[in-house]
Structure prediction request, 441 residues.
Amino acid sequence: MKRDIYKKLLEWKKTGSVKPLLLLGARQTGKTYILKEFARKEYENLVYCNFEEDPQLLEFFRQDLIPARIIKQLSIYKKRKILPGKDLIFFDEVQLSNEALNSLKYFNEEAAGYNIVAAGSLLGVKLSKPGSFPVGKVTIFSLYPMTFPEFLTAMGEGEYRELIENVEKIELFPEPFHRALKDLLMSYYFVGGMPESVSRFSSSRSYDEARSVQNNILKAFVFDFAKHAPHSDIPKLSLIWDSIPLHLSRENKKFMFSALSKSSRGRDYENALKWLEDIGLINLSYAVETAQKPLIAFYNRSCFKVYCLDVGLLGAMARIPAEILTQKNRLFDTYNGAFVENYAAQQLIESGQKLFYWKSGSYKAEIDFLYESPEGVYPFEIKAGINPKSKSLHSYNNKFTPSILLRSSLLNLKRNGQILNIPLYAINYIEKYIQMQSSQG
Prediction:
């Protein structure tokens, strides 16, 4: 399947004397697939080294980290001469070898003619031994679950993607296209963006098959808890992970440690929460009261929401049945709009945004997200349906007077005074729409 990151991979290759590339992301997001596909299309040969499947590869990095020796021994081991610039060397599951991870530094300094990529879990790389991470010596990309635009491409609906991508001014999309995109969005809410789930659904059009894939992925994640997490944190990980649908079903969606067990305290669960974030399974959104750049300087570490990495997996965790898809807008409203908000968080994360939300000091007003643009900070409210009313947006406007108020809902693309309504299916192009809104005055 096509992934948007492929364009970045091409740009990386075209830079000439390229640094080694490190591709990070949660498990099951397609890191191995996309790098193998890149090698197949752009290189003569792939030299694939998977440290999990073939532990013997670890031995080549224990003597020293001299690139010339490593390449020579890999050539003998793989029974193929490795050619600079023509072959792609791929270190997969690189987090299993601190030495291999550190070797990327020396490949950059002493063997720049060789193209090397590595892939690993976020957790494994972050827990690498001191001195093993090649700071400043590698190019780092992150891979997330497929976005809604990528889903459209995978479903053979690329024309709709082009429609929302190539907008030239703020105006309504034709109503037949608007309805079709809402239906496709509803499918995405259920199928999600995990590549295997999308692939199965695109070929079978079966929601049951997509759900079967999701359940298997969830089982694999739980297996990772037992395999990789500190033993004492495993029960805590499960409590936090299983509680995500419950927390998001609440009106304010704030994460409460007390909901895990009566005696729960934040400091007892901090390590487990951080572990889930580091492995890429959850995204945290922190509260701020001061809407000023940079938002990271003003956030409240003790007040946050927890989102699942993928809206489809959230539905599987909550056991939302496929039958709900026949009831149209009910899926959008389920769990107090939890799926809509989680969907928005997922798309914003992929676009490079850090997640923050605004709450007034009195807690009487709250905005779902704050969007940090080069021009400033904008309130971004997410609506599950078509009700455009928002007391919180007006409260925020009275306090901070931003030039634009952002809202995303099932309504069509339109400008209503100071409010710019972006359809939920077009969230990924929010920056472009802001620029057009500003230029139109």
In short: The first strand starts at residue 21 and ends at 25.
